[in-house]
Amino acid sequence: MKRSRIGLTAGLAVAVLIAGCNSGGGAKPSKTLKELGKDEKASIKVVYWDKSYFFQQYGNLFSAKFPNIDVQVVSMQGFYSDGKDPDEEFKKLIEEEKPDVLLFQSPDMFEKWANDGKLYQLDDVIRQDKFDIENILPSVVEQIKAKGNGNIYGLTPSFYGQALFYNKDLFEKHGVPLPKNKMTWNEVLDLAKRFPKDGQGDNRIYGFAENASYAFSDKKQVAFQMMNGIGATSGLSFVDPDKGAVTIQSEGWKEALLMTVEALKSGAVFAGSDEKFDPNKPMMMDEMARKDLFATGRLAMTVGGSYMISSLQRAKETLKDVTPVNWDIVTVPVDPKNPEVSNSVSLSGLFAVNANSSNPRAAWELVKYINSEEMAKLLTKSEDGAMLSRTAYAKEREGRSMEPFYMLKMSENNLYKNYNKIPYEFFYKPFNELAGNEIQSVIEGKKSVDDALKTIQEKGQEIYIKAKQEQDAKNAKEGKDQKPAEPAKN
Asked: Where is the stretch described as Disordered (predicted)?
């Protein structure tokens, strides 16, 4: 599913936990938090993606600032292994470790916990401590409040965003006008079609690629990802999680599929590769860089997250025989009906305090420090590529303006909105493979667009029901009260 493109970094795949808390539910927090005394000791237990990375990123600096707080780390290596539902794994971890401070990767799960009264409301303590949230990107604060019914239940030092990266030299060489902010998909693909399509081997260039790397370019999945991207821009969703219904047989998805097929058949868009890669044989960094069409100067445009900037810098340092890309960015393609918002901008890495914390002051100090102006200054030097919520420290990178990452507001109409209600196994493989096969059949002229969407709809619904039944059975076995899945009424 699309969230795999998000490029999870260690700084985002985190849960921070403080030991010694009560396990009761729904406690009402006090309106003030008394500061820790100078000699008052506290023990902080942190569950993080990697122990050494935590201390490098936050731990050493936090411990120096709060020497009376002992910090311990529990590694999360393997937390996002294939076949595991990360939301379920997160819940289990919370139950086992009984934390004071949580970091939510999923905004939907954060919203649920906030609305269930499981998180500490931070509005009062923010005012009490005069903690500056005025210089945090307004759309970040707005979305946090939207998730908490107008209140603040968490903070994030960074957010996920994407931009349209383009190769300035290729545009100038072929006399194609440079991309602009807030272009539509039609405008982006029209630019792509103005590049030559007759090159061979290393001389073959492309106007656009949904995924610039040969290493992750199975033709069926490239087609599926491209349709995803176009559909998400228009606020489309594959599933209505409240009704348990697959929703791909619609005019909106038909338009997205037609645009995808036409673009891939044009030859202007990279349609994927037949080259096979062994997933059990990791590639060296230089080999990976050589498989990247954009990094090697063979691609005019691609959509990528902010982490791509670090990847381009590493390619520049690794590929000494390749001319570094003269790149720049504009906003991702937008919906012409709603050009000020984007699904590519989303909350991630939300730190929150457990409402049942026995040491809420220590918990808040950690959350406050991680989201502070002081930390933002330090994170500007980080190489993980995350976009900082405090905009004063994210003006440019590598001499390029980062404004396109901050220009669009977050959209509530998300391709994977409420995805935590959707069975994990539905998106893990079966539905993606089904859709990819059907889209490829249209590209090859074996099926019509309408027939392909009908098949994806019908077989996709069967996959959904099966995945829901298996999830319910698993939950029942674990003692959870779940209703069996019923076929959706279309």
From this structure: 467-490
